[in-house]
Design a protein that fits this description.
Blueprint (H helix, E strand, L loop, with lengths): L16 E6 L3 H8 L6 E7 L3 E3 L4 H5 L9 E3 H4 L6 E5 L1 E6 L4 E5 L5 E5 L2 E4 L3 E3 L17 H20 L3 H7 L1 E5 L3 H17 L13 E6 L10 H13 L2 E5 L2 E6 L2 E5 L5 E5 L2 E4 L3 E3 L2 H9 L9 E2 L5 E2 L2 E6 L4 E2 L7 H19 L14 E6 L2 E6 L2 E3 L1 H15 L3 H16 L16 H4 L2
Parallel strand pairs: 1-2, 1-9, 2-5, 9-21, 11-12, 11-17, 12-13, 19-22
Antiparallel strand pairs: 3-4, 6-7, 7-8, 10-18, 14-15, 15-16, 20-21, 23-24, 24-25
Helix pairs in contact: 1-9, 4-5
This protein binds flavin-adenine dinucleotide.
Flavin-adenine dinucleotide binds next to α1, β2, β6, α6 and α9.
Length: 444
């Protein structure tokens, strides 16, 4: 029989202790890394083969960085971790009684992964606040695949505008709507505006990219509300300077193929024609949170995140940890530092329990927040220190280089930033066009 997590001691006997980790994001990957050399057998399962640095996805969408610059193959990251194996699969169920994780492989086969300890770090998905039908016209940006879809839509819109003879229809292709004034919405709207005004200058014949319209809608009173009034205002002014229209107190009530309906603070609804809407508002926890809550009686919050115990374990199941974006621990925000630190805490707790020690409570050390508003201009809030402009951007650059996983990713990112932020080029602009069936045969 395998040693129980609580009473085992750190001897060879625990070498077969099986740890299953769901998700190779910040939470899961850092849990795996901090179990290096622990006497455990780790299986890390993810539906993709890579770890992705989500904070830079918007730069893939706007042609600054390649997918390889913001991601790293998970098995390469863990190749020197002899106690860890990586498996591709979609986790569809978790049996807390039998202690098994049900996985569907890419070829459709099902498998069950038995565990002694389990770390669930499956993150969040986009929330449309009860309007999932918006997703078809306003996709979000959580994965590398999402960022590539956005790149296709953004660069495709410019191509379509060049083909359009009707000025109104062309205007709709050249209007970009971004929903949500958090860091992602701010960063992507700023980058679309700069793409048009700098990188695409002089490339089109039917229109001048300077005339592109980028509208950012935020339901609350200010954008980047968590940064505080002064930085919110600075971000707004910076965006407006580069041509982004910022509308606060504006709630998007409808999205379709031709635009959005927006209700303003006075309650009036206005229609905005646009062929490209990007959703950067709202998150909902992975459906696995509900699976765990139903099986354990743990509470879910409004975003479907699981309320965890003081050591990040699941209510009534000290062998199961829920970390990262899908956990609710004292209402901490869904940011990478929380995910990374809670993943490390779960790993440390597994080690402690195997060593017969009592678990310790999770303590979060806040490092601050930052957002790159435009080229060489970022806002930063760290423990009362508030920076903006070029100084903020230098700090942003330093932190992002340090945080990227793997030397190759850092190098690729630096090349992309040098070309885009010192020069005006966007090197990652390739899109795939779909010609109607038979078009090439008929028109050789
Ligand atoms: C566009 C964007 C910008 C952001 N900007 C910032 C920022 O500037 N600063 C900041 O601190 N934070 C930022 N964040 C938040 C930060 O990226 C997250 O807090 C962090 O990634 C959460 O880590 P996680 O491990 O909980 O989840 P994730 O990183 O989302 O990883 C979850 C993993 O689980 C896998 N998975 C999900 N479901 C399953 C399943 N059923 N089966 C198998 N695998 C599954 C996924 O493929 C993924 O690899 C941003 C997020 C986004 C989306």
């Amino acid at each position: 029989m395998r040693p129980a997590v609580h009473d085992a001691v750190l001897t060879d006997k625990v070498a077969g202790h099986r740890v299953v980790i769901v998700g190779a994001g910040f939470g899961g990957l850092f849990a795996a890394r901090f179990l290096k050399r622990a006497p455990v057998e780790i299986t890390l399962v993810d539906r993709t083969n890579h770890h992705v640095f989500q904070p830079l996805l918007y730069q893939v969408a706007t042609g600054i960085l390649s997918p390889g610059a913001v991601s790293a193959p998970t098995r390469e990251v863990l190749r020197k971790h002899a106690n860890a194996k990586v498996e591709l699969g979609d986790v569809v169920d978790i049996d807390l009684v039998e202690k098994k994780v049900a996985v569907v492989r890419p070829d459709g086969r099902r498998a069950a992964l038995p565990y002694d300890s389990l770390v669930v770090a499956a993150g969040v998905t986009q929330s449309y606040f009860g309007h999932d039908e918006f997703a078809e016209w306003a996709p979000g940006m959580k994965t590398l695949a999402d960022a590539l879809v956005q790149r296709q839509r953004i660069f495709g819109a410019f191509e379509m505008a060049e083909l359009e003879e009707d000025p109104d229809a062309r205007r709709a292709w050249l209007t970009f709507v971004v929903v949500g004034g958090g860091p992602t919405g701010v960063e992507i709207s700023g980058q679309i505006a700069e793409l048009a005004r700098r990188a695409l200058k002089g490339e089109f014949r039917r229109f001048d990219p300077v005339d592109v319209r980028v509208v950012l809608f935020e339901g609350g009173k200010e954008i980047l509300a968590s940064f505080g009034n002064r930085l919110s205002e600075t971000a707004r002014t910076t965006l407006e300077k580069i041509g982004v229209e910022v509308q606060t107190g504006a709630i998007v009530t409808h999205v379709d193929a031709d635009g959005v309906d927006v209700k303003d603070a006075a309650g009036a609804t206005k229609r905005y024609r646009s062929k490209t809407t990007i959703w950067a508002a709202g998150v909902a926890a992975s459906p696995l949170a509900k699976v765990l809550a139903n099986a354990s009686g743990a509470e879910l919050d409004r975003a479907g995140r699981i309320k965890v115990e003081s050591d990040c374990s699941l209510h009534g199941h000290p062998e199961v940890y829920v970390v990262g974006d899908m956990m609710n621990f004292d209402n901490l925000p869904g940011v990478s530092e929380v995910a990374l630190q809670s993943g490390i805490h779960a790993a440390k707790t597994i080690r402690r329990r195997l060593a017969g020690k009592e678990p310790e409570a999770f303590k979060y050390y806040e490092l601050g927040s930052m957002a790159a508003v435009s080229r060489r201009n970022a806002i930063v809030s760290i423990h009362g220190l508030r920076l903006s402009g070029f100084l903020g951007w230098m700090l942003w650059l330093f932190v992002h280089i340090a945080s990227l996983t793997g030397f190759k990713s850092r190098f690729k990112a630096l090349v992309g930033w040098t070309l885009s932020f010192l020069g005006a080029t966007r090197t990652e602009r390739a899109i795939v066009t779909k010609l109607p069936k038979g078009a090439i045969d008929e028109h050789p």
